[in-house]
Each structure stands twice: as C-alpha cells, then as structure tokens.
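Loading example: each entry is read as two labelled lines plus one structure line.
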Amino acid sequence: MEAKSRYNVAIVGATGAVGQKMIDMLEHVAFPIDELRPLASKRSVGKMVTYNGRNVAIQEAKADAFEGVDIALFSAGGSVSKQLAHEAVERGAVVIDNTSAFRMHENVPLVVPEVNKEAIRDHQGIIANPNCSTIQMVGALEPVRQKYGLNRVIVSTYQSVSGSGLDAVEELKDQSQAMLDGTAVNAEILPVKSEPKHYPIAFNALPQIDTFEDNHYTFEEMKMINETKKIMGAPDLSVAATCVRLPFFYSHAESVYIEIDQDDVTVPQMQGVIQEGEGIVLQDDIVNQGYPTPLSAEGQLDIFVGRVRRDLDVPNGFHLWVVSDNLLKGAAWNSVQIAQALIEMNSDA
Amino acid sequence: MEAKSRYNVAIVGATGAVGQKMIDMLEHVAFPIDELRPLASKRSVGKMVTYNGRNVAIQEAKADAFEGVDIALFSAGGSVSKQLAHEAVERGAVVIDNTSAFRMHENVPLVVPEVNKEAIRDHQGIIANPNCSTIQMVGALEPVRQKYGLNRVIVSTYQSVSGSGLDAVEELKDQSQAMLDGTAVNAEILPVKSEPKHYPIAFNALPQIDTFEDNHYTFEEMKMINETKKIMGAPDLSVAATCVRLPFFYSHAESVYIEIDQDDVTVPQMQGVIQEGEGIVLQDDIVNQGYPTPLSAEGQLDIFVGRVRRDLDVPNGFHLWVVSDNLLKGAAWNSVQIAQALIEMNSDA
C-alpha cells in the first residue's frame, strides 16, 4: 500500500453490528480518510450511514466496488470475505478481515496490536482480526506472559448476544419481553442461525457458540485455542476453552485460569503487571466490591481485568476475570487499531 | 430420633424460595408426615402454605415452636440456624440445615445422599445440606472419582438469581422490564443485599456471590472449595472456583475442568460413567445440539451433564458442563433426600 496523507476506506458489512462500530471508531480516531465507502448486500443499497455528520450512501459489496480502495475492513461473514477479499487485494487494497475466513492461513498475520503489531509487516494483502473472545484474553495475558512466562490457559466464557449480530440482539429483547409477559417465546437465531435447533437465550445460558467440531469442541472454542497460540507465537501453549452464550447485549466476560513459569508471584505483583499493560484497565478492589461487568465495559475501548487470585493449591496458578466490549476491542476497535498501525508503518517505510 | 410411622416435620423459612420447594418435595415423595409445621419470621405469622391441598398456618420460628418436632428443615439464613438449630435439637428434633452455619463443623455431616449417605449415621443432631453450586458438582463428579480417581477440579459457575432468594428473582424481573423500557434501573439486592454496593443483574454478569474473604476469593467460592473436599472425603483434592451471578431465574450451570488419575479414558467411557451415576442424566449429543441449559433443567430433580470433552493437551484432563435446578437438587430436594435417608436408617436400626 502506497503511503498517502488520506486513504480511501471501504467497510464491508456496513449495516452490521460490527460495521457500524467500525465507522464510529474511524470517526473516533479521526482516521485520515479521503473517501469512506460503506458496502453491504444488494438489499441495503441506497441506505445511508452517518460519518462525521454526513450521510454516505451504501453501495453493493462486489468486486468492482473496491476500485481505488486503499484499506478494506471486512465484517460481513466468512463467506463474503472468501468471495471478495482477494478481489479487493487484486485491486490494490489491504484487507483487514474480521471473520474467521483467513485467520489460520499461514501467510495471513493475525493481529492484536498490543501483542504482535510487528506481524502486520508480513502481510500479503490480508490481515486478520482475531475472534472477539480471543482478543480480550490475549490482550490481558500478554503482559503476564512477557513478565512471568505462560504455559497453560483454561477459559470459560460469558459471551453476549451481539457476537451473533443485530438479529440476536433483537431476539434477546423480544424473548425477554415475551417471558416477562408470559407469552410464547420464539427462538430462531441462537445459538447458531444456520443450525436446525434453536434454544431461547432470554433468562438462559447456551453452551454452544458456533457449530460443533468432530472433537466435541465448538468452532468458537477451537478459535480461542488456535488463535491464542498463533497471536502469541506460542504453539506449545496449552489452551482449553468452554464458550457459553448468555442473555446480555454487549461485552464478553471470561473466567481465565493460567499457569505461569514462576511459583512465587504475589497478587499485588500480578495486579501490577496487568495494570501496566497497554490497553488494559485493572478493576480489582475487593474492599469496595470493585470488578468489571459486561454493563460497565459496554462502550469502552479497553480490556478490563478483575478478581485476580492465586490458586490455593497450585503455586504458579492464577485466576482472572476479563471483560471487554466485544464489538469494540473485540472487533471494530481492534480492526481500526490495525489500520492505524498499517498506515503508521507505511509512513515509516 | 425415634423410629415412627409418621413424623412431625418443621420447615424453618417456609415462605422463602427454598422453604416453599421443601414443602413441594415432601409432598412429591409422600413423606410420612404426621404434622407439618411451617415456621417463619413474626411478620409471616398467620399466612398460609398449601400442603397436600390443605392450608397450613405459618407459626413464628422460635425455640418452643420445635416442641414435638422430629425433623426440622432449616432454610432461613445462617443467623436463624445459629440461633435456633440447637434449640430444635435440644427439643429432640434432628435438624437438616440448608445454610452455611454448620457445614464445616467437624461433628456435622455434610451430605449429598448419592455421594456420602452413610455420613448421616454420625450426626449429633444437625446434618448440613451443602451449598447449591457444590451439590450439583460433587453429584456429577462422584461416579468419575470412584471409577477413575480425581485429583483436580477447576470450576467457573453460571448461577441463577434464585440462589439469592425471592427478592432477587423480583429484582431481575423489575430490572429487565426497566431496561427493555429504557427507564431507570434500581439495584438494591444483588450481588449481596447486606453489602454497600449493588449492581444491576439484568442483562449483566456479576463476578461476586456472597462477600469477599481476605484471600480474594468470595465466600461462595470458598464454600465450593471446602465443601467439595469434605463431602468427597478428599482433603487433598485440588479445587478452585470462580462464582458468577447471571440473569436467569432458576438453575445453576457450571463449566468444570477435572483431572483424573488415568490418561487413556475416552469420551464415550467418561460419558458412560456419568450416565450410570445415581441422580445424573447425560445430555450430550453434539450431532443434534443436545446439552442441558438452565431453562431445560428448571423444575427437574436430576443433575444434567453435557459437553463432555477431553482436554486437547492434558491426557488426564476432561471438561464438563453441569446443570441442575438450584432450588431442588441444590437445596430442597437434597434436604428431603437427607430426611428420607434418615428415616430409612432409623427403621434399619
């Protein structure tokens, strides 16, 4: 990508939960944009998005829509990325892809800027944005890994419905009202829209996010396992995940157990290392009941960490509670951070 | 306690979430009751409970209310148990206590009948019913421990608001409606009524159940850790817990990681052992998206287990998802099972 003072930026999936936040984040950082080109499926053509107070018309996401585009942020599902990302690259764009389509491809950097920003330099046209639940976990753990080493991670997630898109947000609202009213509850979206069986999410918990793999793990769980190792450059790190969808709208929370390489680390030392981490806010005050929650993290860009405890039996074991807005640091904000790093590296070169 | 054909049974806390279910469960098993004596605080005196289609008037829970009582089921909070359990015992009753008041006392058996029914024989007037989140976990793990040994447990819980009583159930309803309406949300009950700070539970997750201990764990987490070791008679078992309150009404779910003493156990073998366990139902069918949820377990007496997986790195590691109705197996049903075992042992003697 040629270094410029202003860039043409396409948003693929501009009407989606993440796409809308991408536009917000570009605005938030005053990204040097010449033309913003919101793209979506045919049925959204002509609708408007608002950017810096101006209405911008949505165009159809197809190959020639990428003519003249410098940076294309994709968040319209894996099939759209598989179909159009290479078309965008062929037309000279750098793609920052927020789907799972290319994340594990060898030639595609998978980036959380606070963790492995330098990997961006190796891109061959596509840079992948990790899975939402992965980003906040590796973001929280990287300073710990750098300071004390890390050899094991076991995570149980508490994930909001917005990770399944705006339809799932509406489904939770509708089902919640129906249950409060004692009327019939329709379940059509969660846990996975394309699967045969749907369960109510309102006042419930669903231990399925994405489809099942042959090894009995869900694809979401395998994403957390594989992506964590790739981002941290730690193929031998032991990672296990159980992913659960819950009835809240925004932010994911995670109960994370880790084993580090040292036996003698205290809680204040661990808190200190986390607090110093880039993009991390420590909220851990047991005297004043201070800890992050999905509601407190909503709309925030940071990764929040609380409930830091030493394991009572394992001298190198610690427990943490990690919360972040899944649409922001977990998706749109991380993508825009990658775009910022990309143009920064461009001007270095 | 003298063996009889019918018993006088007191319910302390008869108007509470658990007390009401205790009466339901006594009815459900046609417990041989001569007189049912529902007890509660002064302000509930004169209110009625329904038992076998008859109205029974609530009396005040005070020392002389236990005259003539054979079995007293307590579920009115730890302070009431501390004040009145010994009064009941002095008057000849056996107390089955559903609070944390006596659980860790050396002379008080802590019982999940499927796990350690024989401990009941050692009682000295008081038998303790474990914490709700502990019961379902040890119930699910005991058959595994017996077959393969067990040396490590790490649990992250997903707990319903009814564990904090009927006020918390109402709070979740009210807050949910207020959030859906976009009106002001009041938080006065959760996470802990007596603590200074309250957070909304509707569309949120609170990583605090009960008060904090000096070691940064909550009392709920320490209950799970200590009670599990006591019930299983396994003081050296490594147990770690993170307890989280969530916006659903009934049932607790748990993401449980275990390490057993064998390296070569397969998923079907593990499923088979769990399925054979008393009071356990295996619901684990990844082909048909089969797994338990809080809503599916509501009103059921069993412990439901799904999502059985081998850890991908640790050869003796397994992950499970355990769900049960916290007011039933987690409280009222387990207490009534203890009462049943007690009178059974009486007639043996």
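The two ends of chain B are 11 Å apart (CA to CA).
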